[in-house]
Here is the input.
Amino acid sequence: MTHFLVIGGTGVGKSSTINVLTGKNLAKVGYGSEPQTQKLMGYGAKGYVLWDTPGLGEGLNEDMRHIRLIKELITNNAAYRIQHLLVIVEANKRDYGTVYKVIEEIAKPRYALHISILMNQADQAMKGRNWDGINNLPTSALLSFLNEQALSTQERIMRNTGVKVATPVFYSAATGYGVDTLDQHLKQLSLEYKNGHARKD
Ligand SMILES: Nc1nc2c(ncn2[C@@H]2O[C@H](COP(=O)(O)OP(=O)(O)O)[C@@H](O)[C@H]2O)c(=O)[nH]1
Ligand SMILES: [Mg+2]
Here is the structure.
């Protein structure tokens, strides 16, 4: 079982992603500020475990407190054996402040090669335009936009943090688009961790 830590700003869809991947409705969706718990919640999917975290991006002091808590928990608490970080961003966002902060404060140095960026809300990437709601797919204009956004996100992260992440995967937790691909991606990573040869380049 590979353990993933799901992290990102409030409202990006961490809990929705966990629910759609686990096929259960256990993670609470739409809670702004999470309760001030001193532990993380783990949810089992087929072949891996997802750990939900409090949302970031609600102000400097709150963020510092959350980041300290998360870091403390994953480094010092034997109950959490986090192998890989899943940083969720909104496909339409251009504000990467929270992502950089997570990479600087939580990922480095131990997880710098063990991060995936997940772009959720693909349906909303162009403010809902070019989304084919009938077939639940992006039209070609939106698909191009998503591909460009994925590459530019990767490039910005490299430029701002020096960390080389894989090209982000995009999907939509709310509509289910791309969720199978995401699940396959996580299963593949899981397998690599299990076999002891996860990406180290
Ligand atoms: N349109 C759209 N809305 C989404 C998507 N994923 C999540 N949401 C909505 O975004 C809001 C916040 O989601 P939540 O999972 O609670 O975010 P969290 O704070 O990161 O855990 C909820 O109203 C969700 O229904 C998506 O892919 N598309
Ligand atoms: Mg949540």
Observations:
- The chain has one domain: 2-194.
- The pocket of magnesium ion (ligand 2) is lined by residues 14-15, 31 (CB under 6 Å).
